[in-house]
Automatic annotation (TrEMBL):
Signal peptide (UniProt feature, chain positions): none
Lineage: Bacteria, Bacillati, Cyanobacteriota, Cyanophyceae, Nodosilineales
Gene Ontology MF terms: alanine-glyoxylate transaminase activity; L-serine-pyruvate transaminase activity
Name this protein carries in UniProt: Alanine--glyoxylate aminotransferase family protein
Keyword annotations of the record: Aminotransferase, Pyridoxal phosphate, Transferase
Pfam families: Aminotran_5 (PF00266)
Length: 382
């Protein structure tokens, strides 16, 4: 049957019909007063979502572009930076930092483990020259949520260093009060917690980061955030933006405002807990521990049943898309996304289909119905 696909991957995430319809229009001129009004409203709402009074700038890029912009605007070649790496995305920020000539010290942890906050403390205490710590909050490749609050405390104690956060799968899913924590640069992308398709990147910038911007000499043009700041002040953009994505963003942000931040965070927490409870009941080993589990994605490292076969049956029989493992975990891990426009019904449907899939594949280490019952119990209790 056509058109019944359910996306349970951590991006792109499902898009509400209201948002799709908002985008299904002729583009309008990006210098028109109508569009200017949309930019004004959207920028206002973005500040609400990021919990900041300062700039949240929008670029036409995927999340990687947003993080790249968040790095190159505030640093100079040769600057010493700490980069946390405990998964695919952390690895990517190491590559970007090196590509732009930064002096990178990698703070690594095994995939599936959280970053060691003490390693950040020691490195920061021993080197007053460090210019920035670059940290992935929710490491989507493994389903680990890094302890950004503690790492940030160590960065604050250092004084000079900026904290640059990849919040791509945490913003809009987990409480990340940008101003209250004093985070300097926070980057994310539209296809994750925003309930709209890929194509927009967002970067929150603190006043301290703007001071660093004045000294920063890494070459930049399209991603020069100074340009975006200047035009945002006039409810405009430096270049032609993806106009229709802005229509969608406008609608999606209004939906988020109507739901409220606390309710959004509680929903993601509930879905995380329900998915994890189901995995435990099904005797499927969770890749990330209970104390460091991402609100956006649950990673499972099955034993006695093949991860790729699970994904194939889920897709073929039930039209439910799950994500696979990345890099060395390809073929071993599967990941259930529960980010953005996801409701309780989606979780129950995915868990039921997963049970049926496991039975079909001859995996018998659970009693039928136990995963669904466990997920349902969590959903009822919260
Ligand atoms: C998706 C994602 C990104 C950005 O990836 P793009 O494909 O460039 O949008 C960055 N970091 C994390 C943690 C992600 O999940």
């Amino acid at each position: 049957m056509d058109d019944k696909q359910m996306l349970m991957i951590p991006g792109p995430t499902p898009v509400p019909e209201k948002v799709l319809l908002a985008m299904a229009k002729h583009p309008i001129g990006h210098r028109s007063s109508e569009f200017s009004q949309i930019i004004e409203t959207v920028n206002h709402h973005l500040k609400w979502l990021f919990q900041t009074q300062h700039d949240v700038l929008t670029v036409a890029a995927s999340g990687t572009g947003a993080v790249e912009a968040g790095i190159i605007n505030f640093l100079s070649p040769g600057d010493k930076v700490l980069v946390g790496s405990n998964g695919k995305f952390g690895d990517r920020w190491v590559q970007i930092a090196k590509a732009f000539g930064l002096d990178v010290q990698v703070i690594a942890a095994d995939w599936g483990q959280p970053l060691d906050t003490e390693a950040f403390r020691t490195a920061l205490e021993s080197n007053p020259q460090i210019k920035a710590a670059i940290v992935t909050h929710s490491e989507t490749s493994t389903g680990v949520l890094n302890d950004i609050e503690t790492i940030n405390r160590h960065v604050k104690a250092h004084g000079q260093a900026l904290i640059i956060v990849d919040a791509v799968t945490s913003l809009g899913a987990y409480n990340l009060p940008v101003d209250e924590l004093g985070l300097d640069v926070v980057a994310t992308g539209s296809q994750k917690g925003f309930m709209i398709p890929p194509g927009l990147g967002f970067i929150a910038v603190s006043p301290k980061a703007w001071e660093a911007y004045e000294q920063a000499t890494i070459p930049k043009f399209y991603f020069d955030l100074g340009k975006y700041r200047k035009t945002a002040a006039k409810n405009s953009t430096p270049f032609t933006p993806p106009v229709n994505l802005y229509f969608g963003l406008h609608t999606a942000l209004e939906m988020m405002k109507a739901e409220g931040l606390e309710a959004i965070f509680a929903r993601h927490e509930r879905h995380k807990q329900a998915t994890r409870a189901a995995a435990k009941a099904l005797n499927l080993p969770l890749f990330a521990g209970d104390d460091c589990a991402s609100p956006a994605v649950t990673s499972i490292l099955p034993d006695g049943v093949d991860a790729e076969q699970i994904r194939a049956v889920m897709k073929k029989r039930f039209d439910i898309a799950l994500a696979g493992g990345q890099d060395h975990l390809k073929g071993k891990l599967f990941r259930i996304g529960h980010l953005g426009f996801v409701c309780d019904r989606d979780i129950l449907a995915a868990v039921s289909a997963l049970e049926a899939t496991l039975q079909e594949l001859g995996y018998e280490r659970f009693s039928p119905g136990s995963g669904l019952a466990a997920a349902h119990r969590v959903l009822l209790s919260r």
